[in-house]
Amino acid sequence: MTDQAILLVEDNPDDEALTLRALKKNQIMNEVVVAHDGIEALDYLFCRGPHADRNPDEMPQVILLDLKLPKVDGFEVLRQIREHPRTRLLPVVILTTSNEEGDRVTGYGLGANSYVRKPVEFGEFIQAVKQLGLYWLLLNQSAPLPRSA
Fold first, then answer.
1. What is the mean pLDDT of each run of 10 residues along the chain (149 residues)?
2. How far apart are CA 92 and CA 64, in angstroms?
3. Which helix (H) or strand (E) holds 123?
4. What stretches of 11-81 adopt beta strand conformation (E)?
5. What angle do CA 19, 22, 27 make, to 5 degrees?
6. Is 67 in contact with 100 (CB distance < 8 Å)?
7. Where on the phi/psi map is residue 110: left (φ > 0), alpha (ψ -120 to 50), or beta?
């Protein structure tokens, strides 16, 4: 069985490149699927639109979710993930620049598994991604997901 993908939901091209570089630098070789807005993320997860042919039984191992997204924000993406029986148990890590207490409260209230503030310094960001990878991809035992009918 191959490693499951990481779904990175990030609209900022610089933050996307930084995250991909940090994953590579930490030898995290899982496929990374990038969604650039909330609609794209939901289409991928629910096999709609351009992802209609995707196998619904192949879910990402973890979702790295930015909050400030165009079209549909990260909170609404998280809300829809948690409302649907096929995706409600997927690990979701909010990875954002926001340090607002209200955002953390809302994120956890909607069912985020973790809230990580993006470090500004690249070396710190590399370490943060390494820790995320070690925990969510190696140590964590994810709940089994329901199979599609």
1. 80 93 90 97 97 93 95 97 94 92 96 90 87 84 72
2. 6
3. helix 122-133
4. 32-35, 62-65
5. 130
6. no
7. alpha
Q: Quick one: pLDDT at residue 1?
A: 32
Query: Hey, what domains does the chain have and what are their CATH numbers?
Result: 6-139 (3.40.50.2300)
Beta-carbon contacts of 76 under 8 Å, excluding residues fewer than 6 positions away, are 38
Rounded to two decimals, the pTM is 0.91
List the beta bridge partners of residue 95. Answer: 116
**Taking CA 84 as the corner, what is the angle to CA 83 and CA 89, rounded to the nearest 5 degrees?**
90
The CA distance from 119 to 69, in Å, is 19
pLDDT value of residue 133? 85
Amino acid occupying residue 48: R
Residue type, 38: G
